């Protein structure tokens, strides 16, 4: 296995990106949450989740397809079974916005308080973790600081694997950034490493959405818009059993394995994209 980079604590090391604010202290707190963390996290997740529902469901015109696939897994999947969701990334409000779609029964206190239910998600260190107060807010929101450009061997990817090992739900944007041009970007191999190194193959749910950049634009003025038409499409679980069996019987390098897995995820996501574009076109045309 490739060696991991040195601590990412505010200086460029071995070609790693410069990190002006030290994020090292965040990972131990996310790895071993305290009672205070759980209390604060309950408040942040509950408030942000309800706000997201107001914006996405009640103040905009959202059409949702197959969300019951995800909701069933959140409520009924066997204990210890990891869940990985992957989606396109068109707006800074994608997460938490999309989780406002979940039915209110999933926002009951018993579920909001349960860290096995609400997702863990990677968030850009240079946007969300720029100072202590921003870091605390996003940390309590179960966001993990990821350093873009630091490669697949960094603390954020390690922590995602650890959370999946515990049977938690992790969400990943495999494009690796807000895709403002909506081009077909090559997916980052971090998602391949996460799947490859999780001992139990996660249930993988693809999500494609259209219109979020109209709710929170990527160019100024940056404020939430109302009355926009959005389409969300939750795909069936991606079956990687054959891929993983092939990798076990015909071993390849870790780098090649990550590429094979990531390519399969991208292939399935592109199929879902085409389907969602048709659904969104029909939605626009019908109104």
Automatic annotation (TrEMBL):
GO MF entries: 1-acylglycerophosphocholine O-acyltransferase activity
SUPFAM superfamilies: Glycerol-3-phosphate (1)-acyltransferase
InterPro entries: Plipid/glycerol_acylTrfase, Tafazzin
GO cellular component: mitochondrial inner membrane; mitochondrial outer membrane
Membrane topology, as annotated: Peripheral membrane protein
Coiled coil: none
Alphabetically ordered keywords of this record: Acyltransferase, Lipid metabolism, Membrane, Mitochondrion, Mitochondrion inner membrane, Mitochondrion outer membrane, Transferase, Transmembrane, Transmembrane helix
Similarity field: Belongs to the taffazin family.
Name of the protein this chain belongs to: Tafazzin family protein
Species this chain originates from: Aedes aegypti
Gene: 5571286
